[in-house]
């Protein structure tokens, strides 16, 4: 059966769901509030489970060509020099598992091209304000529909999602800078440095931006969620001096940051919908579950949600597909949300004792078998099957 499907939000999850469902023969319209679809944010890591979804829509090769593969995530405590995070994507040096570090704009272009190729229709300048049955209502007073299925992929501030979330005390400022020549940091690793849990600075090599041949890096700095105004009020050199004093290797990355506006504040919250669907409505991505980015799973969760929903629609009548989608994703989402909730305060908080627990007990344990393998699977996104009972049709 061919369905008429509306998707709220032209982000990673919405466009991926659109590409998958349009490829099945459904009529898919993606509504977005911007005059032209565009990404928000800086660098991220697409884990192996997310890379599989990119392959499903034909976007992996384009993303991989401009992104940058990483084999390790490593962090050290600044004051004592101790290692506090060390995760290999594959314990076999020649193994196939790697993270794909990439700028959101580059990833977005690859997924947008895949959506266009699949036949998705994009409706720009449509700011959604709510849902009236199977119709979507817009800020200009108009509405569209009815649709057989509405998919909420409008992100953390979606007007369609009933999710409630607890704000997290720390966020981060992000910026994109050229990868400097002569740096001693490896280009196939995410590197982070910590002072206890109240300071964190990181560098992620993210490959190329659209239309630019030179490799780039995402630089991030942990910041209390209510401190951004104070950070902007002080001279930029005050912050840069503090960062370089804590981690001298970051100095060449900060040379190109000359204006506060080059660093964007990201704030986080934690919450999960118990039921990510309603009659004629499916909710995916950040509209269904919010968490900190500590495990690097936000975009991957959106990709997995989109793939699971498309598989459920292919395998079941529509009234059965939505609960099948929710059931398939339930335990994977719950486990990663729980892990994010547990890990985040160890790396972003004002606690004095959690960093000691992290450095003196948890990290040494994480480097021993079988904990090291479990941590690798956790970061790769395949600690448990990400879609439970849903499998591709033969």
UniProtKB/TrEMBL annotation:
Entry's Gene Ontology molecular function annotations: FAD binding; monooxygenase activity
FAD-binding domain sequence ranges: 3-130, 235-318
Stored InterPro entries: FAD-bd, FAD-dep_Monooxygenase_BioMet, FAD/NAD-bd_sf
Pfam family, one: FAD_binding_3
Keywords: Monooxygenase, Oxidoreductase
Protein name as it appears in the record: 2-polyprenyl-6-methoxyphenol hydroxylase-like FAD-dependent oxidoreductase
Organism of this sequence: Litoreibacter ponti
